[in-house]
Amino acid sequence: MSEGSGAAAGAGAGAPKVVAEIGCNHKGDFAVALEMIATAAQFCRVDVVKFQKRDVATLLTREQYAAPHPNPQHAYGQSYGAHREALEFTLEQHRALKAHCEALGVEYATSVWDEVSAREIASLRPKRLKVPSASNLNWPMLSFLANAFEGEIHISLGMTAPEEEEEIVAFFDRRGRLGDVVLYACTSDYPVAFENLHLHEITRLRERYGGRIRAVGFSGHHLGIAADVAALALGAAWFERHFTLDRTWKGTDHAASLEPDGLRRLTRDLAAVTLALRHKPAPILDCERPQRDKLKWTARSRG
Question: Which of 131, 146, 31 has the alpha carbon at shortest distance from 89?
């Protein structure tokens, strides 16, 4: 994006970056995960493909593990803990996913939900890791990322109070890492109604933290792609959308996900609108001159 571009240039991150959040939409099937990477990279032409990593024993109490899934029709196990474990890949599988991404020319990333997972995935040396809204107050994990992970740290701010947001920012600022942080405006609902997107959170984050953080992003769980274009105009530089091959598959995230053609159109439209969001370099553009000479009424042209 050229100097003098519109609002998106103010985010300081150049062209918009699109993240295909595969998350757990692979259904625990490694072959499906490989297919999703290929589709996102080659058909949708995204910049980053992202998974999730949880250490179930760290995250769940014994009671939570044994409890039934709150939506049994979407369960992949007899208990919630068994369901979560069925959707997890091992570190070696993540290593293979990263290699597959690199072979296809797309970046690999993962949302880490706990310190154990953060340490494991950081050992793969990805360019960036994501902290989901649910874990953005996990101080042991954030301490590890700030002190030991050299890449970018992307953080979603769904279901986060203002004082908690300030605490997160101050935490990374004290450790000299705020310049590596990308903050995402996010509403934690699946799918989220348009009236609950509150896109002006993007404006607020840019005005409040602007030159101190790397960029502001938008993590959307809404339907369609219109809101993402508006987010671009407001200055978001990163766009994260859940991705699935089939929105009817079993699993709670599929309904709030984009299928391949939707994700393809999102990357296409964000690139096109980025080109349009720029100031005119001259009152009359070069492309207008032939039409002006042919059509414009002036006193000189009329004798």
Answer: 31
Quickly count: other Cβ atoms within 10 Å of residue 293's Cβ: 9
Which uninterrupted H or E stretch holds 144? helix 139-148
Work out whether strand 152-156 and strand 128-131 pair parallel, antiparallel, or are unpaired.
Answer: parallel
Compute the 3-state secondary structure of the chain and give helix, strand, coil in percent, each to the nearest 5: 45, 15, 35
Query: From CA 151, how far away is CA 180, in angstroms rounded?
Result: 7
Picking from 48, 47, 49, the residue whose alpha carbon sits closest to that of residue 26 is 49
SS3 of 107, please?
strand
Q: What φ, ψ does residue 139 adopt, rounded to 5°?
A: -65, -40
The rounded distance, in Å, linking the Cα atoms of 55 and 112 is 9
Report how far residue 75's alpha carbon sits from residue 252's, in angstroms, rounded to the nearest whole number.
9
Residue type, 135: S
- Nearest alpha-carbon partner for 178 in 204, 144, 213, 207: 213
Question: What is the rounded CA–CA span in Å between residue 33 and residue 99?
Answer: 13
User: Kindly report the CA angle at 165 between 164 and 170, in degrees rounded to 5?
Assistant: 95
- Closest alpha carbon to 44 in 265, 254, 253, 241: 265
Give me the average pLDDT of each 10-residue run along the chain (303 residues): 34 77 94 98 98 94 91 87 92 98 98 98 98 97 98 98 98 98 96 96 97 96 96 98 92 89 98 94 95 85 60
Is the pTM higher than 0.85? yes
